[in-house]
Design goal:
single chain, alpha+beta, Lipocalin, 252 residues, 2 domains, 23% helix, elongated, eight-stranded antiparallel beta barrel, 12 strands
């Protein structure tokens, strides 16, 4: 009898252990299945990085005409216009697959603008400030869009990313001839409630009707107090993220 009583208490614990093991295995199987569907059955289709759409002027006669008085035409306040977009680009990896895929999320919910000065054939950007509503970022996966609201970017808690120019940008003379130019912008970038002073390489194209600016910057998630997202250890994002933008400014 004593042997039977000593064995009885052990039975419920054994059953619970088996049940927990089964439940754990089921959860792992479900997460793995979701990851396989996410990456293999329905692979992502990532848009290409932003690029200038405004054509450069190549005719020397047209360049001369475009440059006449163009510094004065550029001077003034310019604000965000239609066609502008900003977002992120990251690398995702399925735990048991060697290849990575690109995840891209974008939004057109951008406000702000820039002030240009121009005289004697030269132009400068003296002030610039832009706000991006990151809570409206969308990609080709609604599952991903929901996740970044609570992990990684945590857009529910930090719905706005901003950039404020801290040093004027001197534009080369060729910018006033309609040619695309490469410059850089130094300022305060705020993401996830954390701001850092950064320098962002830019490509710009100016005309009397529109100023287009394309740029991107890559940084470790930790630089803005974020943790690279991970879904159950099966879908992982690499340690760096890229912020990219395509701004179309028009006369205020």
């Amino acid at each position: 009898m004593s042997d039977r009583r000593s064995r009885l208490p052990g039975r419920p614990r054994t059953k619970r252990g088996v049940l927990l093991t089964i439940m754990g295995t089921a959860v792992i199987a479900v997460v793995a299945a979701v990851a396989i569907v996410y990456f293999v059955i329905f692979p992502t289709s990532s848009p290409k990085p932003f690029s200038l759409t405004t054509k450069s002027v190549t005719s020397s006669t047209t360049k001369s005409q475009a440059g006449a008085g163009s510094a004065a035409q550029i001077a003034g306040r310019w604000t965000i216009g239609s066609g502008s977009a900003a977002g992120y680009r990251v690398r995702e990896k399925l735990a048991f697959l060697p290849a990575q895929s690109q995840a891209v999320g974008r939004t057109s919910s951008i406000t702000g603008g820039a002030t240009f000065t121009g005289s004697n054939g030269t132009a400068r950007v003296t002030h610039a400030s832009f706000d991006v509503n990151v809570e409206t970022l969308t990609s080709d996966r609604s599952m991903r869009d929901e996740k970044i609201r609570s992990i990684g970017l945590e857009s529910e808690r930090y719905p706005t990313a901003t950039f404020v120019l801290s040093s004027p940008i001197a534009l080369p003379p060729s910018a006033l001839t309609g040619q695309a130019v490469h410059v850089s912008a130094t300022g305060a970038l705020t993401i996830h409630g954390t701001f850092k002073t950064v320098t962002i390489p830019l490509e710009m194209s100016l005309s009397s009707a529109e100023v287009q600016t394309v740029g991107s910057i890559t940084f470790p998630w930790s630089e803005f107090n974020m943790v690279a997202p991970s879904v159950g250890g099966f879908v992982n994002v690499t340690n760096s993220a890229t912020m990219e933008f395509d701004l179309h400014l028009r006369r205020a």
